[in-house]
């Protein structure tokens, strides 16, 4: 009986793993070779789903949209978070207040942030455009222009998540030994030099963690464009998860939707693996 | 120089806080007052809030959200502690295998399991039930790893003494050890509760029946589906009600929230 105890304790995990991880992964592979609308029996169609995927312009559009999102979101996130963390890492009054403020959007639901930003980004009444008008600059059609909408969403996502990365960078900055800075001071290094040659190399691991986490986050993008633009204008904010969702729950193409999910997951694993490998080389 | 730094920080903080203040005061304003940028509501009114309750059963959704989040979070703590304890303090065959399974699970993108998991829910007849909202989330790999780490750091003497006194292993876990790792319990609780409270995609998939919907799902459908018409104030009021519970908890536990999130990002 005693010997069985550990197994009894870990049994919830085993059960969970079998039902919600192992089975779905295997079943999703099986599904990719079938056509199925859930109601009628599954129909084996060989590689048809994969052929459809390769020729599906909308899916490639969704991937391209994700790429455009990441290209703006990741650098912006790193620069803003690092700048704020640098400021906060000095002796400053009201540390707790500032951290608390930056963190506010992180804890709130993406649904809330999106509804809020829908108003901020409005063409006529939005705060951002009012600011531009006040500076006598032209208004920007944030959500109306297919070339801009995804970047507007990237801007919002940065605002939402940057507080988390400020905290992570603060943790990273505190691991840099003070002696390095003291030595640099003796040599008469400027503030920028200290940042460039001491801080930046030392927090490299944190930077790459931020890259990996925001890549995964970007690949999971769904609720923000779903509420904000419903994928429009002209599918310019259609995200991959949104497209998978639509294929399954609007058109009931379960097999095809699973194929998209399977392919997309492999892609994410590949991208993250490459990033991780790069980190290991750097560190 | 120092003043410049404060001014910049203050401006940055303002850009994170002001939109929330604007949202709350706009939700309390009349429709024509929403366009303004003031801090205080224009023509203070609760109309937007009453309209939300007239159009959607948000009270019911609140109760659903609370129930789902509380039950699931409790189960995550209990089950996570059991598995974490076994992995940290007991020797058995397959222990390492399970540990690697957990790591593997964490790296797996959810996009791959999304559709099959929905089908599982259909086959089990759980669509439109609380089971679909609770059961797939009762086990959490990150929670298991956090518990494992915390339990591994406790002295063996604590466990030995309890065993000599004839404590059962479950009592050791929950009565002796858990009180010693309260920060971890709090971290797991905050992360799980927050994640569940804010989760919108999964409910959108498995729930069609309004009486079982959670708050984020209800507010999403309300805001996308056109029932808010084009009334900004009504949408904002719904969003404020979705945000408020978490904001209130955050005001009380700010430090713990930040610590939890910091530890969630740090993979060992």
TrEMBL record, chain B:
Name the GO terms of the biological process aspect: transmembrane transport
Q: Which residues form the ABC transmembrane type-1 domain?
A: 62-253
The record's section on InterPro entries has: MetI-like, MetI-like_sf
Could you name the domain of life of the organism this protein comes from? Bacteria
The name under which this protein is listed is Carbohydrate ABC transporter permease
Species of the source: Spirosoma taeanense
Its localization reads: Cell membrane
Q: What UniProt keywords are attached to this protein's entry?
A: Cell membrane, Membrane, Transmembrane, Transmembrane helix, Transport
Residues making up the signal peptide according to the UniProt record: none
Q: Which GO terms describe its cellular component?
A: plasma membrane
The family classification in the record reads: Belongs to the binding-protein-dependent transport system permease family.
Q: Which PANTHER family match?
A: ABC TRANSPORTER PERMEASE PROTEIN MG189-RELATED (PTHR43744:SF12), ABC TRANSPORTER PERMEASE PROTEIN MG189-RELATED-RELATED (PTHR43744)
Taxonomic lineage is:
Bacteria, Pseudomonadati, Bacteroidota, Cytophagia, Cytophagales
| CDD domains cross-referenced by the UniProt entry | TM_PBP2
Q: What Pfam families does its record include?
A: BPD_transp_1 (PF00528)
What topology does the record note for this protein and the membrane?
A: Multi-pass membrane protein
Transmembrane region(s) = 61-85, 97-119, 131-151, 172-197, 232-253
């Amino acid at each position: 009986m005693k010997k069985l105890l550990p197994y009894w304790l870990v049994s919830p995990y085993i059960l969970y793993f079998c039902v919600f991880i192992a089975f779905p992964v295997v079943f999703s592979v099986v599904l990719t070779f079938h056509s199925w609308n859930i109601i009628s029996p599954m129909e084996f169609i060989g590689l048809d789903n994969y052929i459809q995927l390769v020729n599906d312009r909308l899916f490639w559009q969704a991937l391209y949209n994700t790429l455009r999102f990441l290209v703006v979101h990741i650098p912006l996130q790193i620069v803003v978070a690092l700048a704020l963390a640098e400021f906060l890492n000095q002796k400053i009054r009201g540390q707790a207040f500032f951290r608390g403020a930056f963190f506010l959007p992180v804890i709130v639901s993406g649904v809330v942030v999106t509804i809020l930003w829908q108003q901020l980004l409005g063409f006529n009444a939005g705060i951002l455009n009012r600011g531009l008008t006040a500076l006598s600059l032209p208004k920007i059609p944030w959500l109306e222009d297919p070339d801009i909408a995804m970047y507007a969403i990237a801007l919002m996502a940065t605002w939402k998540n940057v507080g988390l990365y400020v905290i992570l960078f603060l943790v990273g900055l505190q691991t840099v030994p003070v002696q390095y800075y003291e030595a640099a001071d003796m040599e008469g290094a400027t503030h920028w030099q200290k940042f460039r040659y001491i801080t930046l190399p030392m927090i490299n691991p944190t930077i790459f963690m931020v890259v990996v986490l925001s890549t995964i986050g970007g690949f999971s993008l769904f609720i923000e464009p779903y509420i904000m633009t419903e994928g429009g204008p002209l599918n310019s904010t259609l995200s991959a998860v949104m497209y998978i969702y639509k294929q399954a729950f609007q058109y009931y193409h379960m097999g095809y939707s699973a194929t998209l999910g399977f392919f997309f997951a492999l892609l994410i694993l590949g991208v993250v693996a490459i990033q991780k490998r790069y980190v290991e080389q750097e560190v | 120089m120092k003043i410049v730094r404060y001014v910049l920080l203050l401006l940055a903080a303002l850009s994170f806080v002001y939109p929330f203040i604007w949202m709350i005061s706009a939700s309390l304003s009349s429709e024509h007052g929403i366009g303004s940028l003031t801090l205080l509501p224009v023509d203070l009114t609760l109309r937007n809030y009453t309209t939300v309750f007239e159009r959607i059963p948000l009270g019911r959704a609140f109760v659903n959200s609370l129930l789902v989040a509380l039950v699931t979070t409790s189960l995550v703590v209990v089950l996570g502690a059991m598995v974490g304890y076994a992995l940290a303090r007991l020797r058995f065959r397959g222990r390492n295998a399970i540990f690697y399974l957990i790591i593997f699970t964490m790296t797996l993108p959810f996009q791959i399991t999304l559709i099959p998991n929905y089908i599982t829910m259909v086959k089990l007849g759980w669509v439109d039930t609380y089971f679909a909202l609770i059961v797939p989330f009762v086990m959490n790999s990150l929670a298991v790893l956090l518990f494992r780490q915390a339990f591994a750091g406790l002295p063996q003497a604590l466990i030995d003494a309890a065993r000599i006194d004839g404590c059962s292993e479950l009592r050791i876990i929950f009565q002796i050890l858990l009180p010693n790792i309260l920060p971890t319990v709090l971290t797991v609780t905050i992360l799980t509760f927050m994640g569940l409270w804010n989760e919108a995609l999964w409910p959108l998939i498995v729930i069609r029946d309004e009486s079982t919907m959670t708050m984020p799902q209800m507010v999403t459908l309300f805001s996308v589906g056109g029932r808010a018409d084009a009334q900004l104030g009504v949408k904002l009021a719904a969003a404020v009600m979705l945000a408020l519970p978490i904001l209130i908890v955050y005001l009380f536990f700010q430090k713990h929230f930040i610590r939890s999130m910091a530890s969630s990002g740090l993979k060992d």
